[in-house]
Amino acid sequence: MTGLPIPRWLRAGKPGWTTSADVIVVGSGIAGLTCALRLRGQVDKVLLVTKTVLSAGSTEWAQGGIAAALDPEDSPEDHLHDTLVAGAGLCDEEAVRVLVTEGPQRVRELVDLGARFDRAPGGDILLTREGGHHRDRIAHAGGDATGAEISRALIEALDRVAQDPGIEVIEHALVVDLLQDESDRVCGVTLHVIGEGAQDGVGAAYGRAVVLATGGLGQIYASTTNPPVATGDGMAAALRAGARLTDLEFVQFHPTVMYLGDGAHGQQPLISEAVRGEGAVLVDDAGVRFMQGVHPMADLAPRDVVARAIVARMRDTGARHVWLDARHLGQEFLARRFPSIVARSRELGFDPATQLIPVAPAQHYASGGVWTDLNGRSTLDGLYACGETACTGVHGANRLASNSLLEGLVFADRIAEDIARRLAAGELPPSAPARRRGSEAVGLLDERLRGEVQRAMTDGSGPVRSAESTAHTQQVLGALLAHDELPAVTTGAWETSNLAHLGLALTAAAHAREETRGGHERADFPTQDDPHWLGHLSHVRAGGDLHLTYRPGKGFPR
Ligand code: SIN
């Protein structure tokens, strides 16, 4: 299916400097930091590069928490069950089993490293519940600032080894493209650094393995809970280099993002699902609770179910949003349990203790990404992907709440083990990038077109799609990418190009999947269609074009 042209390279200046390491880790969220810290000491040199500053990624913004079967009454088997149900038939059971069985130990190690989770007076880690979980299994920190605490603990652990010559950190470094040797093995990255001295401007970093942990692609839409850095840089570079990307159409729209008006743009305030976990409920303009009867778990149904019900309610009533009612939880409890949400809501003019909060779904998470095996290996030798950048198979069509931090933690550990083992065995020997072939396409989109990309994606590949809307979006993006002007080479242009390349791939998959499942809702195919669509769509760039393939069957395409 499809034959959409995607360039191999983004236009960029010739590298003016080089550096090398055994392993290059790109990204500094929970996945990248964990991977770099685990690799340090196991290989001679790790290079960690991050786009702005270490704490700027999505991990910092995670509110709810990290899911793990830590309660003696709970079990990995129960966690597995809830994850598979949320994934709407498309999770890879083996990958989920890895996640839920290794997860509790990885969380304990995070505690040993210095992460301070909220605790009961007796000292046990407090656990709460979020949508799709049948048990209290979400560990949280600072009430609703779990990601910030995990980020703090990991960055402090990195600071403690800052003098170690075995680890180097480069901030303000945007990875542009992947370098490959004659056999297509990934052997480094090109990157642009806003620095001083030797490492400034475009450079090349060579490594025996590259780990992409650049987070998600939320900025592809007009509004998202993701921070500004989430422009899908790692996924897009992998796509251009020929790695397989899977399940891109399964975008998670978080049900309760504060609605700030139709013109609101960029990162929007999230109201954690944990607020509903503690008893808040959704109501419409008439004050009617509408989740009861939609799903046995009502307001705590899996995220896709709640988001779809909100969209339906908005459509039926003509409203631009619904409301979250947390008033009965009380001033004191709300301020203690959700200090960041309460503070932000008040800043924006709403007091959750006395007022309803206007909420509507907005982009939150990419369940698909760079296909990997259970050790984080992509389809390109030498290339690994981790966290939101990866598609390990654990999320299927819809990620279960608070499984994302856990996925980053568990698979970062596996990747570090795998790379250390391979390098010790002499695998992935150092190699040089192949000379660029003149026939390889180079492209770049003007940064001023970002708004058009976001509009096209929001209108055509947003929470509700159709054959018509996705065809129109493909047409708009195709036309933008086909222009042959030479825009200024800027960070904004690289990011805009990444958004457009991923947007085209995502939309092609959303167009092809003629059913509604998990995060993918089609107005023209409103039901789940297992006989035709219980399977995975994957993209690979080959011969200059993007190729979309469908692999039927419950299993993940291994
Ligand atoms: C939330 O706190 O609602 C978000 C948690 C998640 O994305 O898993």
How would you explain this protein's 3D organization?
The protein is 32% helix and 19% strand. The chain is built from 14 helices and 26 strands. The strands form 7 sheets. A 6-stranded mixed beta sheet has the order 1-26-25-15-21-23. It has a 5-stranded parallel beta sheet with strand order 9-5-4-13-22, sandwiched between helices. Strands 3-12-11-10 form a 4-stranded mixed beta sheet. Strand 11 and strand 12 (201-206) form a beta hairpin. Helix 1 packs parallel to helix 4 and helix 11 packs parallel to helix 13. The mean pLDDT is 95. Succinic acid binds at residues 63-64, 272-274, 365, 401-402, 404.
A few lines on this structure:
The protein has 558 residues and is α/β, with parallel strands linked by helices.
Q: Looking across the biggest beta sheet, what order are the strands in?
A: 1-26-25-15-21-23
Q: Tell me the major beta sheet.
A: 6 strands, mixed
Helix fraction bin = 25-40%
Question: Mean pLDDT across all residues, rounded?
Answer: 95
Total number of β-strand segments?
26
Work out the radius of gyration.
22 Å
Shape: globular
Residues in β-strands, percent: 15-25%
**Number of alpha- plus pi-helical segments:** 14
C-alpha termini separation: 20 Å
Supply the helix-strand structural class. Answer: alpha/beta
> Unreliable segments (pLDDT under 50, ≥5 consecutive)?
none
User: What ions, cofactors and ligands are bound?
Assistant: succinic acid
